[in-house]
């Protein structure tokens, strides 16, 4: 059984000051009933960014054996913390678009004859959306794409040229308009249903592609909604489940998968193929491969 790191909060030491909350980028912590709570193991990366901001020393990172994530097992712990924590956990899953896990959580509550909390709020995370995952429509940016790129000095060049080892000015670069049509873009954070998916051409890209290919926005992203992920470091099974729901619940016109030439990247293409099959839809699929040197093959 594999081990992973995760934070542990001492309820006895915690005074509910909330200083740890802003320093949890995953939004896995909330103050509930006067105590800091880890409302979802799913979103805790175990790096402990919150630890240094706890004046009571109530948070630490522990390493423990962990089976593949099970929402039903997480709910056992959530239920013990009371109805407010149950509601916060369900809203957290809803806010991150984790419909599969949300359904599992609801089923667990029903099996235990526990009343379902009211989840009619549009926001997640107990009355507000996690800032990093709040959906934003950026479509108006598309209107700028017809403008000619302008020559401009690279930002920060004057400051950089005086740095040690840097001589002269940086070369002039062409400024390109962003083709991003929505936020968030990380597949794990994307809602299953979003306006940008309506009659959309969808680009599903390995996250390294945008760094390797200098024309990512102009050549690959133009006119498409975007979802990114890493098939090597992330759970490809969860990707397949999430993509299946997106394909099934939206009208997707076409899908382009952009991957690097390295073997491990092929997993993303396989996940999309399986998701299309599982969705029961016939969606055109295009595969684009980017070489290590950034060339679009």
Write structural notes for this entry.
- The structure is a single chain.
- The chain is of the alpha/beta class and about 300 residues long.
- It contains eight helices and twelve strands.
- The protein has two domains: about 5-110, Alpha-Beta Plaits (2-Layer Sandwich); about 135-140 and about 175-290, Rossmann fold, CATH 3.40.50.
- A four-stranded parallel sheet has the order 10-9-11-12.
- Helix 1 crosses helix 3 (about 100-110).
Name the descriptors.
Rossmann fold; Alpha-Beta Plaits; alpha/beta; 12 strands; 2 domains; four-stranded parallel sheet; two-stranded antiparallel ribbon; 297 residues
Q: What is the number of helices? A: 8
| Rg | 22 Å
In CATH, the topology of the largest domain is named Rossmann fold
Q: Termini, distance in Å?
A: 40 Å
Give the SSE layout.
Elements: E1 3-9, E2 29-32, E3 35-38, E4 59-65, H1 71-80, H2 83-95, H3 99-111, E5 136-137, E6 150-153, H4 157-160, E7 172-175, E8 182-183, E9 200-206, H5 209-212, H6 216-221, E10 225-229, H7 236-249, E11 252-260, H8 266-279, E12 285-290
Helix pairs in contact: 1-3, 7-8
